[in-house]
Amino acid sequence: MNETAISFAKDFLAGGISAAISKTAVAPIERVKLLLQVQHASKQITADKHYKGIIDCVVRIPKEQGFLSFWRGNLANVIRYFPTQALNFAFKDKYKKIFLDGVDKRTQFWRYFAGNLASGGAAGATSLCFVYPLDFARTRLAADVGKAGAEREFSGLGNCLMKISKSDGIKGLYQGFNVSVQGIIIYRAAYFGMYDTAKGMLPDPKNTSILVSWMIAQSVTAVAGLTSYPFDTVRRRMMMQSGRKGGGSLSHSNIFVFFAFRRQCFLQGRLVQRAQRNGRSLCASVVR
C-alpha cells in the first residue's frame, strides 16, 4: 500500500471510531428528536399519549420503556456511517471533477462555490441510494415505544428489515426516499458547498486550528440542518407509513414541506437536533 492509501485508511478508521463514539453519546438526544418528529404518524403513540415537549419525552422514555431504550436504533445509525462516508467522499471527488474542472477558486469564487454545492448534493443523493434501508430501520427502531417482547414492533435491526420487506417488498424499505433525496441534496449541497468553500479560502487549510475548524463546522452544520429540517421531518413521517395502506405520496409530501416552513409542529425537535450535532461535530473535529 502506498502512503496515500495508508493515510486514507487511517483517516477513515479514525472517522469511523469518532462517529461511533459521538453517535452513541448523543443517541438519547437523537431518539428524543425522532419521537417528537414522528409521534403524530405512529400507530403506537395514541393522541392522549403524545409527548408534550423535550422534557416530557426525556422523563417518560426511561419510565415507560427502560433507560437503555434511549439507544434504540443506534446500532443501525453507527453501521451506516462507514458506507455513507466512503460513498459520499468517493462520489464527491468524482463530481468535483465534473463541476469544478478548470475553475480557479480565487478568480471565479461564485462558480467555485456553486460547483461545491453541486458536487456535495450529487454525492449525497447518490450514496443515499445504497444506505437508505439502514436509515429507514434506524428511524423505525427509534420510533418503537413498546417496553419489551410482544409490546415491541421490532426486536432488532434484522427483524425490522425482514418484516417490512416481507409485508411491503423492497420498496417498503425506501418509503419517503424521494423526499429524502430532495432533503439530502439540500443538506449536502449546503454542507459540502459552504464547508469546502470556507476551508478553501483559508491561507493554510491543512494547518488550521481545531477551534477554527470546529467553528466552521458548527456554522455550516447549523445552516445546512435548518435548511433541510422540514424535509427530514416529512421523510421520517413517511417512513412510518410502511406496512400500512394509504401511505403518503410524494405530491402530498411536497405540500407538507411547503407548509413545514410556516408551521411550528414541523420544527419540533429542531432544538434537540442542534444539541445532537454540536456534540458530533466537536468529537469529529477533535479526532481529525
TrEMBL record:
Residues in Solcar repeats: 6-98, 111-201
Presence of keyword Phosphoprotein: no
Entries under Gene3D superfamilies matching the protein: Mitochondrial carrier domain
GO cellular component: mitochondrial inner membrane
InterPro entries reported for this sequence: ADT_euk_type (IPR002113), MCP (IPR002067), MCP_dom_sf (IPR023395), MCP_transmembrane (IPR018108)
GO biological process: mitochondrial ADP transmembrane transport; mitochondrial ATP transmembrane transport; negative regulation of mitochondrial outer membrane permeabilization involved in apoptotic signaling pathway
Main location: membrane
Keywords, alphabetical: Antiport, Membrane, Mitochondrion, Mitochondrion inner membrane, Repeat, Transmembrane, Transmembrane helix, Transport
SUPFAM superfamilies, alphabetized: Mitochondrial carrier
Membrane-spanning segments: 210-231
Subcellular location: Membrane; Mitochondrion inner membrane
Keyword Isomerase set for record: no
PROSITE patterns for the chain: SOLCAR
Reactions catalysed: ADP(in) + ATP(out) = ADP(out) + ATP(in); H(+)(in) = H(+)(out)
Recorded topology in the membrane: Multi-pass membrane protein
GO molecular function, one term: ATP:ADP antiporter activity
Function of the molecule: Catalyzes the exchange of ADP and ATP across the membrane. ADP:ATP antiporter that mediates import of ADP into the mitochondrial matrix for ATP synthesis, and export of ATP out to fuel the cell. Cycles between the cytoplasmic-open state (c-state) and the matrix-open state (m-state): operates by the alternating access mechanism with a single substrate-binding site intermittently exposed to either the cytosolic (c-state) or matrix (m-state) side of the inner mitochondrial membrane.
Protein family per UniProt: Belongs to the mitochondrial carrier (TC 2.A.29) family.
Subunit structure: Monomer.
Designated name of the protein: ADP/ATP translocase
UniProt lineage: Eukaryota, Metazoa, Chordata, Craniata, Vertebrata
